[in-house]
Predict the structure.
Amino acid sequence: MRLIFSLASIFLATGVHAQSLTLTSPDGQLVVVVSDDNNQPTYQVSLNDKLLIDNSRLGLAFKQQGEYSQGFNIAKSTRSRTNTTWVQPWGEQKTIRDNHQQMTVKFGRGEQHFSVNFKAFNDGVGFRYEVAKQPNMGESVDIVNEYTEFVIDKGDKAHAWWIPARGWNRYEYIYSSTPLHQAAHVHTPFTVKHASGVHLSIHEAALVDYASMTLNQRRNGTLKADLTPWSDGVLVKKKAGFTTPWRTIQVAKTAIDLVNSNLILNLNEPNKLDDVSWVKPGKYVGIWWGMHIGENTWGSGDKHGATTNETIRYMDFAAENGFDGVLVEGWNIGWDGSWFHNGDVFNFAKPYDDFDLAKVAKHGKSKGVRLIGHHETSGSVTNYREQMDAAYDLYQAHGVTQIKTGYVADGGDIKRVDENGITRHEWHDGQFMVNEYLHSITEAAKRNISINTHEPIKDTGLRRTYPNWISREGARGQEFNAWGTPPNPPEHIATLAFTRMLAGPMDFTPGIFDLGFNGLEGVNRPQTTLAKQLALYVVLYSPIQMAADLPRNYLAKPKAFQFIKDVPTDWQQSIALDGEVGEFVAIARQQRDSQDWFVGAVSDKHARELTISLDFLTKGKQYQAQIYRDGSKANWKSNPYDMVIENKMVAASDVLTIKLATSGGVAIRFKALD
Ligand code: NOJ
Ligand code: CA
């Protein structure tokens, strides 16, 4: 393919030599212009001549070397073209196309220089800084500012969906839907809809050994990178010769094309773990929801959930119903008292007296069910780090291949004891924790263990490089419906699909069947219909999915339970079919190495009619559609269980029209017939 290349040199009246370089996406629609006008490195992005990101500043500032931004001019540029595919060991899409044009622009001022590497894909743009070793740069480089801007819309016409950054509850906030200019300081992925209808998501890819980028709105429409600092105020501590994570701008003509983008994964490095056949997607149950609704406790006593007998009961239930894992929380010493605040007393090797690790692990093996490990740190990461080797060894010795980790602590309150024995408090998304989370992944990988991180660092696509980072939380999950004030609102899932889920898999823990554990009028309950709980398994992608409710609640609704038994967690391909941010979404996924398809769709507080064209099915093939939809009288508030299960013969040429109730949903299995 022809390299599209243009270089314009403009001699200004002042005699200053300003340049601009243009990089175009392979389909020619997205255009990035990099310039050093006024000796200031900037970039801008447009789609079919429509300016989406206006001139936005680039550059960094170092404690030792000062500013690398103003006064720097384009010194050199190199280009390349890539069009390949690669395969995910597990995922929402088996084969991913990486099709982009690349341009590295070197900016210099005397002997000082830095480069910005841009990649233009059809679905967006990524760029990162590359700061090579240079004569005037010592070994230690402390970043004290990143000037990167995203000048989105000065006209106040854009709309945004966001959660606040640097808050006490990390990423676990209800999304705000506001005019763009009200988004003061936000996390990424940050979703914006232009007046033109074009959707953008600003995020980052491959966040490794760097602070997380949050966005701070300066003048209206100008979002500036705001890196989460260390406890001593430095933003990032590097050694000379480094690259930053990719700053990403997904660009989509419609909301669903944000979901259909693979930009984040394409900007991550390939698998570094070689053979990862030991990483297993799957479905699990666990000793979990009982604690959240107050029926059990994590700590010892009469209501202790994690007992040997209870674990065996769950393992038998799992084996009978086709689940391959049982999560057990509260098995180890340390939960008694205020476990939120007592992270230092967690012991990751010592079970409570009523939990026999060897016995349950052996029982699981005999039933073909894995014990899923659990390590809650309550944010005391030094305590965890000191025990990590032994704790992972212990689980490995008992055949545990997956561990859920937890970092419950207020934002800014991660406790670390430094090399001098002084206690420091860090953010979950600062560089220290970015490294700490990844350390747990690489240590676990050495033992063929996968990790599902709760209270994590946000996902930036590192599952490509470390496929044992199997899932994570990083948003308000189902647990908020048990005790959150308030619980997740009806629009939550239709917002997550276009925000948090753009980052990667989420362990939301779907499938609550008893929606009225406090009575249907109770404040805390899932604000959904039963059909919507089923739809979550398809809408919210994760290679591991929990059936989160208590076994007795599944046994009480065996017909609805059948969908959870049937739905897979590993896919050949995924297609977002229809949707608008925060209103509704419909997603189709083809089971991996199978002809069967599944569809999930959810609505916000409005009832609506959905038209689904089945043209994703294989032409000429017949399918049995097993449909789980809201009944005609269903509504989430007073009649959430009204659900119709019906079978229909369908083909690719058919169109289904389905009614979704208020906060309703639909889940469909398309079983291919020979
Ligand atoms: C918060 C996690 O999100 C939840 O799933 C877990 O049960 C508790 N922490 C205890 O570790
Ligand atoms: Ca949580």
User: Anything to note?
Assistant: The radius of gyration is 25 Å. The CA atoms of residues 459 and 503 lie 5 Å apart. The pocket of 1-deoxynojirimycin (ligand 1) is lined by residues 288, 329, 376, 406, 408, 454, 473, 479 (CB under 6 Å).
